[in-house]
Amino acid sequence: MQYEDRKPNNESPIHFAEETSTGSRRNVNWKPPPPGVIKLNTDGAVQPNTMEAVSGGVLRDNSGRWITRFCRNIGSCPIIQADTWAVLDGLEIAWKRNIRHLEVNIDNIEVV
């Protein structure tokens, strides 16, 4: 797993666009956590032909400022494992940073 403490130039990524599976773009609104709570956003991805998987995420405060980001090259696995690795890595990083008030967002209901 890799993670970085550097903050990107844009410290307020509240509104952004993401590419859908069809190649179109849609706007996404990030909702901040309550004051005193850190938000963990995670995701996993699997290349369907090879099953090569990666996962990652970001921790942000209630102003949208990045605390840290992380990623992992997993190898070969199904998407539920990639998504689970992302959550586990994010929780481990938060714990090591003494973050105890955490809101977790993930797009895979099976992991929840």
Automatic annotation (TrEMBL):
Listed SUPFAM superfamilies: Ribonuclease H-like
Q: Which residues form the RNase H type-1 domain?
A: 41-112
Instruction: Give the InterPro entries listed for this entry.
Output: RNase_H-like, RNase_H-like_dom_plant, RNaseH-like_sf, RNaseH_domain, RNaseH_sf
Where in this protein does the record put region Disordered? 1-36
Write one Gene Ontology MF term.
nucleic acid binding
PANTHER family on file: OS05G0353850 PROTEIN (PTHR47723), POLYNUCLEOTIDYL TRANSFERASE, RIBONUCLEASE H-LIKE SUPERFAMILY PROTEIN (PTHR47723:SF19)
How is this protein named in the record? RNase H type-1 domain-containing protein
